[in-house]
Design a protein that fits this description.
This protein is of the alpha+beta class and 249 residues long. The protein contains nine helices and six strands.
Length: 249
Amino acid sequence: MTHKYKITGMTCNSCVAKVQKTLSEISGVEKVNVTLNPPEAEITMNHHIDTGEMNTVLKKTGVYELTDFNSMKHEIIKTDNSDNAEEISFYKTYKPLIIVFLYIIIGVEILQFSYGGFNMMKAMSDFMGGFFIVFSFFKMLDVKNFAMSYSSYDIIAKKWIGYGYIYPFIELILGILFLMKVYPLFTNTATLIVMGISSIGVIQSVMQKRTIQCACLGTVFNLPMSTVTIVEDLLMVVMSLIMIILMLS
């Protein structure tokens, strides 16, 4: 018997090889064909193997998960009966990112209160500092897998995977500089360049409609690459540009 599955968590050919090898070693599996685009697996087995059993084995090797196409169709039909299906799906998908942004905004508001009033330059600096610190933290949890994921779409990391290994540290340093409010012109110029370059790879991937994992929160959360990622990167570009203009005016 042959079953077809959707796979989440794969970002590169290395992931494909790892998933294919892992699935092939499961008792009862006769043949496995894994593809990255689309991220699917066709598995031939000599007896029925529970999807949960295969996922238990897969999760020992990375953030991969199989979903049977039949159960996916059932879920789509079930969800589409609701008028707010798209809103629920969006919130469920981007819940980690939404919560992170809310926490950063709350932190900025607390700092603004401590300053005794609203200051746009300080607010933007604190927001960007919080953004880089928090996002670098999630990347640091698994730098190796982040680097592999990042190299699947970033224009620099594609050519030199080492950039993916140092990128979390770049974010950490920028975050510290923003929060300390030292060397503001250098910090904002570096942010403009780093996030501007990062945006190019993201925009290319979205325009090409590639089904890949966004590495903005590392590999802890399986966030899809989408226009949300573009907005996230360009927000930092715009804010750094505004701050540079205000400093030079």
